[in-house]
Automatic annotation (TrEMBL):
Protein name per UniProt: Rpn family recombination-promoting nuclease/putative transposase
Organism: Sphingobacterium haloxyli
InterPro entries: RpnA
Top-rank taxon, per record: Bacteria
PANTHER family xrefs: PD-(D_E)XK NUCLEASE FAMILY TRANSPOSASE
Length: 303
């Protein structure tokens, strides 16, 4: 499709900070967020209403660093949801998700005698990832993580969960998309490229997305914010692709070096084998070493 002079599509890219707030934030995005979470939980939980909470949480001491979520909300049954869009891989990404949920749980525990029962609320971390989480599993695009018994796989504790969507691994085409979760993944990846809502999407669920996401409806100030947010995303994408290329190049160089070493070792082995044959035929050690470029000591050791 053709894009305007600012290289913007018809619809705001979901995979930007601005897009996340526009589509899912408190200013009109609550129905979308409820639909998204219900699609993600697929009946495991049914969310009827949400309350947005401040996305920034201070530490217990002044020296503690702040924890900032893209979106943080609670459901009417007391569940807590941290929703984040992540553009780039981080060395300790999994540690970070556990840290965030642990920090939130600690904050939510009642102080004093009320906390003596140790009853905890449900806490879920939802990550939309624009990078591959595990390169050894190139086809998995949805992770549903809970505390489980390693022996039989049964859920040990059902009030803490991590649901991660890996966008680069999702490559289903329209005819193969059946579930609401797949529909959400499709528009996360492709909405910026679309000219209209595809017919295979349920308009009751996704109609509002396409209504509020039109770039042409943005105010001048919002347009500037979106362009800045889109630039940040594209910069992150450039960094990610460069890292992949560098990784491929490094892998190729290592492979070529390994091949050269193997060829060199093979040639050396053949030379020593030939030297041994000459030695058995009675040629002098000195002559063999001189003719084949070996040391006298190498030839003397051959048996």
């Amino acid at each position: 499709m053709k894009k305007n002079k600012n290289f913007l599509g018809k619809y705001v890219d979901m995979c930007t900070d601005f897009g996340m707030k526009l589509y899912f934030g408190p200013d009109g995005g609550k129905p979308n967020l409820i639909n998204f979470l219900n699609g993600l939980f697929e009946g495991e939980k049914v969310i009827k209403d949400l309350e947005y909470r401040p996305a920034e949480h201070n530490g217990t001491q002044d020296a503690d660093r702040k924890v900032v979520f893209d979106l943080y909300c609670t459901s009417e049954d007391g569940g807590h949801f941290i929703i984040e869009m992540q553009q780039l891989s981080q060395e300790f990404f999994k540690d970070r998700t556990v840290y965030y949920t642990s920090r939130l749980i600690n904050k939510l525990v009642p102080r004093g005698h009320k906390g003596n029962t140790y009853e905890l609320p449900e806490v879920y971390f939802i990550g939309i990832l624009n990078f591959v989480l595990d390169r050894s599993i190139s086809e998995q695009y949805c992770y549903d993580v809970a505390l489980c018994d390693k022996r039989n796989g049964s859920v040990f504790y059902d009030k803490l969960g991590y649901k991660l969507l890996v966008l680069p691994n999702f490559d289903k085409k329209q005819p193969d998309i059946k579930s609401y979760m797949d529909m959400w993944l499709y528009i996360f990846k492709h909405i910026e490229e679309l000219e209209e809502m595809p017919k295979f999407l349920d308009s009751r669920i996704f109609g509002l997305i396409f209504d509020i996401g039109k770039v042409a409806n943005l105010t001048e100030s919002d347009m500037k914010l979106y362009e800045s947010s889109l630039k940040n995303k594209r910069d992150a994408e450039s960094v990610r692709l460069t890292a992949i290329k560098e990784g491929h190049r490094e892998g190729m160089e290592k492979g070529m070096e390994k091949g050269r070493l193997e060829e060199r070792a093979k040639a050396e082995a053949e030379k020593l084998k030939y030297a041994l044959n000459l030695k058995k035929r009675g040629l002098s050690v000195e002559d063999i070493a001189e003719d084949l470029g070996l040391t006298v000591e190498q030839v003397e050791r051959l048996k």
